[in-house]
Write a structure and sequence with these properties.
The structure is a single chain. The chain has 867 residues and is an alpha+beta fold. Helix 6 packs antiparallel against helix 17. The protein is globular and about 95 Å long. It contains 36 helices and 23 strands. The protein has five domains: 52 residues, no CATH class; 181 residues, Uridine Diphospho-n-acetylenolpyruvylglucosamine Reductase, domain 3, CATH 3.30.465.10; 201 residues, 2-Layer Sandwich (Alpha-Beta Plaits), CATH 3.30.70; 108 residues, no CATH class; 166 residues, Glutathione S-transferase Yfyf (Class Pi), Chain A, domain 2.
Length: 867
């Protein structure tokens, strides 16, 4: 359990002392009492998608998201909602939508980011130019101070603030007294105005937000706004307060809109265009650079979402306009295009509507994970990925930034995200595993901090300080302002129990990293060919912790079904990749590094659905990693009986097919089937698969391709997989009859079983035997004109997915060629319709309602669209 919580989505890794999953508010209070008694730190955490190491540390990780995840109350009249920290942002909006409301700030992780983390980080998102940050919507916060006392922070009038300061002595009273002392001094207020980011920088997460406590009736006589300490708590990263309930203001749903995806040859041109776009008050204005667009090509999910790309742009600026009147949107888009053309900026300006817009936003949101698909040891790193300046300063700032990267360090950089808000996510590419890379890690951070300060920007626009930027806060705001921040921390948390070593007293940024620079990484022999990922260890390292695998069933998609069922971190794709990475990097038993019970625990509920292969933006294929691990684990511990029985499915069915009626009677008998399930280790509720009265192969030999039919469309080869052959024979028969009637001769070529059952149980060497045999038998038979089609997705798609990487070198080209001509029957029929060889009139015109439960492998490796 501790290892699962040793990382987040950052470069940092440190094993916590313990992990706690409080179920009630009283549990949180008990944890605080324990922390005070033993002087041990508490590290609050929700989804664990922070990018600066905010939830990585040596203390007790307190997972506030696992159980404290209720929507407490909704006040539609006043547009307020009260939630616990574990409520997911997008799930909150599903709840609000029937009431015509939404919570505005939308991070790229909004389908798994939790409100507690958004408050702690003061999250913003792609629509911050309209909705601002989480701070702007936090009305009140209820929870516990470091001494365990309960407290509620919220809006206060001048008189109420004075009453708080004059209340009997308590930690809460001392907090208000400190605020009055610090901010009641005009000299301090001026220091804050002079040293914090300038007002035009709307995204600002540098240290404690004392600047956000100035514009209210208490400290500014010209203001009528109430004082609210929530503006300080938002962005404080759990270092001041443990929140258990947050009151948020919510907004009406926005009107419909459209996107212009303006194409530019360079990033610099797109930033100039941003100034033009912003004059039109867009709802969003986001940048996607060439690197991210390139990474989409190899991503099964997002290769389809790049349909709007024309040519080879250096950058695409996504400009969103929303309005109730479509004609208004069209006029705005035409005006933006005309102004861009007049300024000689851009070369293509497609405007998208409806669901096409969602696809573009999905691609943009995946940027953080997509960039990790860059090949080679130099990877895009989070160092200065979150700097923000005034929008007007952005072109000049990025020009200087780029010059530092190019001229001083000789490295490339990825640019994307919030151009309209003055913040680009900038990800320099370098090798953090090397000593030179580690030095560059610090040097780049230092140089860019100085550049940001030159523009009076914010070193963090939304991702926070954490362990990455904490040591630079003093430099950014000066000694006097930093001293004020220190007093805030020491008053709120005198014993540094709440998320210690964040914001104040942060350790050096280049310590406690995931990778040890200069460490000789072991090379592991594998059965699968992992060369495309640059080795099996690198395949695990593709996981950066962005947590797309933590979305619930309400968010759609396949990944990750085990997490959707349990909501436990250990059942995520992220946990499986991280634990396997750790075991392969620092094995307990060098003789067999795979023989790990830690890996066994996290892999246990993996269904090998392959949802992660397509839906994970980094394409982490845990199903393949699991199969490889299982084979090596079996080498050390032996193959369990249950695995042998499942892998032997074809052999068992072949034997049972000698007397199918007897077999079917037996598996329906409660006594016999119960005994079989107990012997096999199956759940008693699990039914055993019945047999058809014949096999597809036998039926085909007698009835397929009747001589009374013509076959003008030629010949196709049917892969008679073991599941269709024995169990789903009726479906196979219908498929052959359909193809015959459509003018195709259907031939079953010589082949062996697919090996899917063996792969599913980790018997990879046996699966490799079947794969090699099938490729050998079919390589000279299957062509583009005579393709191999299949009915069971997990069987036929193995030709495209696992088979090429199970081949010896001499068979690999043949396997790759075969993969290109292996089709699901759905894909084949859709292709033939498109080619005009099948006319729609060949089918009946009767309207029917069909319920489709798509196969997980088809969704991951192909698509349900042909179906």
């Amino acid at each position: 359990m501790r290892r699962l919580y040793a990382t987040d989505a950052s470069e940092y890794q440190e094993l916590p002392l313990a992990v706690a999953l409080p179920q009630t508010e009283e549990d949180v209070r008990t944890l605080l009492a324990f922390a005070n008694e033993h002087r041990v730190g508490l590290i609050p955490r929700t989804a664990g998608t922070s990018l600066a190491g905010q939830v990585v540390g040596r203390g007790i990780v307190v997972d506030l998201g696992r159980h404290l995840n209720s929507i407490v109350d909704l006040d539609v009249t006043h547009r307020r909602v009260r939630v616990q920290p574990g409520v997911v942002r997008n799930e909150l909006n599903l709840f609000l939508k029937p009431h015509g409301l939404l919570f505005g700030p939308e991070t790229s992780t909004a389908n798994r980011a939790m409100i507690g983390g958004m408050v702690g980080n003061n999250s913003c998102g792609s629509n911050s130019i309209v909705y601002g940050s989480t701070r702007d919507h936090l009305v009140s916060a209820r929870g516990f101070l470091s001494d365990g006392s309960a407290v509620t922070f919220g809006p206060l009038t001048d008189a109420e603030f004075a009453a708080k300061c004059d209340a009997p002595d308590s930690l809460e009273t001392r907090i208000y007294q400190l605020v009055r002392e610090l901010l009641g001094d005009e000299a301090n207020r001026q220091l804050i105005r002079d040293n914090y980011p300038k007002p035009e920088v709307t995204r600002r997460n540098t240290g404690y937000a004392l600047d956000q406590l100035l514009a209210n009736a208490v400290f500014d006589p010209s203001s009528d706004k109430p004082f609210n300490l929530c503006r300080l708590l938002a962005g404080s990263e759990g270092t001041l307060f443990l929140g258990v309930e947050f009151e948020l203001n919510v907004q009406p749903l926005p009107p419909p809109g459209a996107l212009m995806c303006a194409h530019f040859p360079t990033v610099h041109d797109s930033l100039k265009a941003t100034l033009i776009a912003m004059a039109h008050r867009p709802f969003g204005c986001e940048l996607i650079d060439r690197h991210i667009l390139e990474c989409t090509k190899a991503n099964l999910e997002h290769a389809k979402n790049r349909f709007f790309v024309q040519g080879d742009p250096g950058a695409v600026l996504v400009i969103e306009i929303r309005h109730a009147d479509r004609a208004h949107i069209e006029r705005e888009m035409a005006s933006i295009e005309a102004e861009l053309r007049a300024a000689n900026l851009g070369y293509a300006y497609p405007v998208l509507w409806g669901d096409d817009c969602n696809k573009v936003w999905e691609l943009r949101r995946a940027g953080q994970g997509l960039v990790n698909n860059v090949k080679g040891p130099a990877k895009p790193r989070e160092i200065v990925e979150d700097t923000a300046v005034a929008v007007a300063d952005l072109p000049d700032y990025i020009a200087e930034f780029d010059a530092i990267m190019r001229d001083k360090y000789g490295i490339d950089c990825i640019y994307y995200a919030h151009a309209g808000a003055g913040e680009l996510h900038t990800r320099p590419l370098f090798n953090l595993k090397s000593p030179a890379g580690l030095k560059m890690f610090r040097d780049v951070a230092t140089d860019i901090a100085a550049l940001v300060k030159k523009y009076r920007g914010s070193l963090s626009g939304e991702h926070g300080d954490g362990r990455l930027r904490g040591e630079f806060i003093r430099f950014m705001v000066g000694d006097e302002c930093y001293a004020m921040m220190r007093r805030v921390k020491e008053t709120f948390d005198p014993h540094h129990l709440l998320n210690p070593d964040k914001i104040i007293g942060t350790p050096p940024m280049d310590t406690s990293l995931r990778h040890t620079p200069g460490h000789a990484e072991p090379r592991h022999a594998t059965i699968f060919d992992f060369s495309e990922s640059e080795g099996v260890l690198a395949a695990t390292e593709k996981c950066t912790g962005v947590g797309e695998c933590r979305k619930s069933h309400l968010m759609g998609g396949t990944m990750c079904p085990s997490y959707m069922a349990t909501r436990n971190e250990q059942d995520t794709t992220r946990a499986r990749a991280n634990i396997l990475r750790h075991v392969l990097t620092t094995p307990r038993d060098p003789a067999n590094p795979w023989a790990s019970d830690e890996v066994k625990a996290v892999m246990d509920l993996c269904l090998s659905c392959k949802g992660c292969k397509s839906e994970c933006p980094s394409n982490v294929d845990v199903a393949r990693l699991k199969a490889e691990w299982q084979q090596h684990y079996y080498d050390a511990h032996g193959v369990p009986r249950r695995a042998k029985l499942i892998a032997g499915f074809t052999r068992s069915m072949k034997l049972a097919a000698l007397a199918p009626s007897l077999y079917n009677w037996a598996v329906k008998s409660p006594v016999i089937s119960g005994a079989l399930k107990r012997f096999a280790g199956f759940a008693p509720e699990r039914s055993l698969p019945p047999l058809h009265t014949t096999t597809l192969a036998k039926w085909h030999a007698r009835h397929a391709n009747p001589p009374t039919f013509d076959y003008p469309n030629g010949r196709v080869f049917l892969f008679c997989d073991e599941f269709t052959n024995y169990n789903d024979t009726a479906i196979g028969i219908k498929a052959v009859e359909l193809l015959n009637r459509l003018g195709y001769e259907v031939v079953i070529p010589e082949h062996v079983e697919s090996g899917r059952a063996h792969l599913s149980k980790g018997l990879v060497r046996d699966a490799q035997h079947f794969a090699i045999r099938n490729v050998t038998l079919l390589k000279d038979v299957i062509t583009a004109e005579t393709p191999l089609i299949g009915l069971e997705p997990s069987a036929i798609l193995g030709f495209r997915d696992e088979y090429p990487d199970l081949m010896p070198a001499d068979l690999k080209p043949a396997a790759q060629a075969l993969a290109g001509n292996a089709l699901l029957v759905d894909e084949f029929l859709a292709r033939e319709v498109e080619a005009g060889r099948i006319r729609r009139e060949a089918f009946g015109a009767q309207a029917r309602t069909i319920k489709l439960h798509g196969h997980c492998h088809q969704k991951a490796l192909s698509s349900l669209n042909p179906t």
